[in-house]
Amino acid sequence: MTRSAKKRTRKAGLPPGTLLYTGEAPAHEVKLGVVRYDEAHFDESEAKTAEDCLPVAEKGAVTWVDVNGVHDVEVIRKLGEAFGLHPLVAEDIVNTDQRPKLEDYGDYVYIVLKMLYRDESRWIRAEQVSIVLGRGFVLSFHEGRSAASFAAIRERLRNDRGRLRKAGADFLLHALLDAVVDHYFVVMEDAGEQIESLEEHLLGSPTQATLRSLHLYKRKLIFLRRSVWPLREVLASLERGDSPLIAGAARTYLRDVYDHTIQVIETIEAYRDILGGMLDIYLTGVNNRMNEIMKVLTIIATIFMPLTFVVGIYGMNFRRMPELDWTWGYPAVMALLILISFGMLIFFRRKKWI
Prior knowledge:
Blueprint: H1 3-9, E1 31-37, E2 42-47, E3 62-68, H2 73-82, H3 87-94, E4 101-104, E5 109-118, E6 124-134, E7 137-142, H4 147-159, H5 169-204, H6 208-240, H7 248-313, H8 329-350
Parallel strand pairs: 3-7
Antiparallel strand pairs: 1-2, 1-3, 4-5, 5-6, 6-7
Helix pairs in contact: 2-3, 5-6, 5-7, 6-7, 7-8
């Protein structure tokens, strides 16, 4: 049973809205980072309770609550109640095996996507990132791997670089989505280097380990496709939707993220085609080597056929065989066998069979 299947079995039989964390609990506690800003002010703090995260009532101000860790379901529940989130949204946040999706609840929009990263063995992993866009606030939930990417956004807000401080919460949503999608290119670049190295090895001296690597990379690309492909629908819905939470200017920037996602998907499809071709090359190479081995064995067997015939004749136990009394009988037969062998080799060479 796969890891994702084991995750789903934990929720079997539970009523809808039950908060049950299905991931692997990290060592650190849940951290609530709160950033409040507008064009003239910036404030950053770490909240202790859900009430400390509530947005301010000032016009134009944006509150960003970054939740690092979703394993404490009680914290997620209180935060959902404080911001008026539907119980099913809180359930999806702690259920870390969600498919990328978009749900519009009117007063807020809930988005699920995957942050891709490489572990110590360079295996590609995915971390669920949940984002809630409301009026004047953005909630982001992740398990820790996204902290570095989101820290760069926090630094942009702190230094007042770009138009992020001058725009609303929808531009912050764009920045978060863009940070996740941009990280896809880092993962895809590493995957491309590994596939290129595997291709060089395949054209050199492929082994059974090469075949295992091919199947391993095909599994990686299937995993990447499942993580990235649904995001195209999510971004298309954000760009073309009619939610009042997203202004027209933000939709233009979301279109750029959509284009990047399409580029990643096309790269994944190209890598899949390359791996499919590499598998064909491997199978063709194995068949060619087998044919070469069979050709050599066939030539050897063909050469020994007349030799065996001659030796078989002189292996018969008849009394009256005149060659048995010849002085040069044995050397003559050996010379005949050698001449037959060399003659057949010359014939095969002229026919270009060897």
